[in-house]
């Protein structure tokens, strides 16, 4: 159980920075700023209602995901290979165990639900075996 609020915020900030870096390295295919903003606001509203990603704003969501969340949706498109699934859920290298929180799983599900709802079953299958760490704060 993670109980330190600062650690939780630090991890969330690290994850958001990593996603922002990935997004900066890829180009957005959407040119419709209005649709991008609407999707971003939909994600923010859903995240706030679920109690995850409390610091997320529409501007941050739009800069992270554009109009398509390609960095997530493209990975899920066509299914996830068993090797990709193993890298996410297991620890094949024997290095430090991965910490995946229930909030992170819920947040990423909202991203998929917002930007590529047709891939929701693929995401659910991918995370079905993950025993997320509860957070308290």
Helicity range of the residues? 55-70%
Structural class: mainly alpha
Q: What is the overall pLDDT average? A: 78
> Taking Cα atoms only, what radius of gyration do you get, to the nearest Å?
15 Å
Total of DSSP H or I helical runs spanning 4+ residues = 7
Strand content: under 5%
Cα distance, first to last residue?
A: 10 Å
Order of helices and strands: HHHHHHH
Describe the biggest sheet?
A: none
Number of beta-strand segments: 0
Principal-axes geometry comes out as globular
3D architecture notes:
This protein is mostly helical. It has one domain. 61% of the residues lie in helices and 0% in strands. It has seven helices and no strands. The protein has helices at 5-25, 33-50, 58-65, 70-76, 82-89, 102-115, 120-127. Helix 2 (33-50) packs across helix 3 (58-65), helix 2 (33-50) packs antiparallel against helix 6 and helix 6 runs antiparallel to helix 7.
Give me a quick take on this structure.
This protein has 137 residues and is mainly α. The protein is 61% helix and 0% strand.
What is the strand and helix layout of this fold?
Elements: H1 5-25, H2 33-50, H3 58-65, H4 70-76, H5 82-89, H6 102-115, H7 120-127
Which short descriptors sum up this protein?
mainly alpha, 7 helices, 137 residues, globular
